[in-house]
Structures are given as structure tokens and as C-alpha cells.
User: What shape does this take?
Amino acid sequence: MNDIGLAEVKLTETEIDAAVRVLRSGALRQGKECDAFEQEFAAKVGAKFAVASANGTAALHLAYLAFLKPGEEVLVPSFTFMATASMVAMSGGKPVFCDIDPGTFLLDLAEAEKKITPRTRAISPVHLFGNACAVDEVEAFAKKFNLVVVWDAAQAHGAQFQGRDVGSFGDFVCYSFYPSKNMFVGEGGMTCTDNEEYARKMRSQRSHGETGKYLHTMLGLNYRMTDVEAAIGREQLKRLDEMLALRRRHAAILTQGLREVPGIRRQQITPHSQPAWHQYCVVVEAEKFGCDRDTLSRRLKEKGIATGVHYPRGLHQQPIFVELCGPSQLPHTEYLAANILALPVHHGLSEAQVRRLVEAVQASRQG
Assistant: This one.
């Protein structure tokens, strides 16, 4: 019986051939392949500009560097990956942690509004696990308080809201191509925007602040993507819809199979959206299910099924942010961190494996 892993990390022969072609050319650094990848990615998501970078963290950092001034505050959900907030701090700003909606696991705007101050400059909602935020509500919120929106779409390649790709909304939309993501190139990132000035500044800052060869008009970093990675990304982009269709099929099987299992509560999908299903996450309510999250994870592991905990603590509980921002309590985030479990949903699974996963969860309730 084959084990069921949490992620699919395999390149197709076509993707390998694309990488080899670039390696043989000797043109390895950012060049024509990166230019083409940026254009094709922007066209795919419906953005005017796309700026490739070394990784998803760099994609966020470039976005914040394009507008954020020292001491300005950014509203950030506490239940997300470290980079969403750490790049605010690395850009001279201050992350202000907000609780999440316990159903969708996404940023609670009512909670965020309580934390608005005269220094609030931006908001950084996360399309967590590929579940699109209510974009219209966030945009209205941002307009009301005159905020820049930095969308963290690191887990949301292909997610849609009201029929539009999430990459087509907002001032910045940041992606990651890390191996665990729906699209991966090894390492790599992309920041989409409709603002030409933002795009120009990010392109300069990803390459030491260059505006011409050996002409530096601002401080910058080396955040360039390689042409090898871009060549892989271009090929993966061609099959993104196919991979998403498989993830959505698997998610539908999981939802149907776990719907009536007491004590298993899945992430609620935002109305009028089409999720990308980077992860299929559930809350394990021990009193109803009969065992806690960690026990369920162990029982599934014994059956050859991998699970994950994303994330075991909120960012407001991370030692560095307690030091920088002071202690705080966010009850929904803390409850979610203590009880969440990610189940396999990726495109590398077979339908039989997904059904075996459902049966394994059901059987685990009986012990």
C-alpha cells in the first residue's frame, strides 16, 4: 500500500527539458526566460505587471519596500507564515497582529478596524491555504481608511473571487514558488501589480537599485530569479489549470466524506470564490471527535498517511514578535493553532488514495 504524502514535488519531463535547455545555453541568471515568465504570469492572472524574484519572501519584501516608510504600521493576520509579517519589520514598518475569523481562518476585518491608528499605512490579507479572501470587503475597508493592500497569495495560485483571479486585485499580490506550493520552481517568487511606478521600483530594488548598467539610484538587494527557475515556471504555468482541477476534485471528495464526521470542522470557503486548495485543513474538536489533533495525526501516520500542522502558533506568539511588538492575546488564532490539521489534497494523489484518507479519518474516531 503506497504512503500518502502531504505534497507532490515532481517535475515533468517537459519541465526538466526546459531547465536543461537553459543550463546548456549558459544564460543562467535573470534574463529572457524571466522576462517571458513575468509576461505570461501577468497575463494568466490578469495583472498589468509581474516582477519575478528569488522567493516568496523576497516578493513580499519588494512590495513593502516600494511604499512603506519607517514606523508605519501594517495590519497582518496572526495566523499565517512568518514572512507575511517579518518583511514588514525588515522594511522598517511595524506589523500589527489581528485575529482571524474562526470559520474561514482569514483576517477578521472587524478585528482589524479596532487596531487602526494614525500610523496605519497598509493591510496584508492572506489567501490562506488557497482560500480567497472576500476581496470586495477588503477593498472597501482599504478605501475607507486609505490603505495600501499587499495580498499574500503565496498559497493561492489560480484562486478566484467573483470569477476573477486573485492576482488581478489590489496594489500588490505576492506569490511563492517554493516546492510545497501549487506551482513550484525550487525557489522563486512573483509580485503582481497594476501600478507601473511600483513595478519599476521593485525591478530596480531586486537588482541592487540599478536603473542602468552600473548605475544605482537607490539602495537595493540581489533578489533576482534565475532563468533555470523561470523556464520551469513557464512550463508549470501551462498545466496550472490541470493541477488545480485535480486538487478541487480531491477537496470535493474530502468534503463529502468528512461532512458528517463529528468533531471534524473544515475551513469554510469564502462565498463567490473558487479556492486553490494548497492545503485541506480541518479543526479537530477533541470532545466531539474522540481524540485530539495530535492523536489523529499519529493514527494516520501509522496508516502511511502524512499530515501537517500549519501553523502551531500565531505570529503574535513568536518570541521575536513578542520582543518587538509586546505580548497580546488573539483567542481564535490560538485555538486554531492548537487544533488545526492539514490533510493531503495535492494533484499527485489518486482518487483511491483520497478515499482511503477519508476512511482512515473515519476509522480513527473509533480509535
Notes: The mean pLDDT is 96.
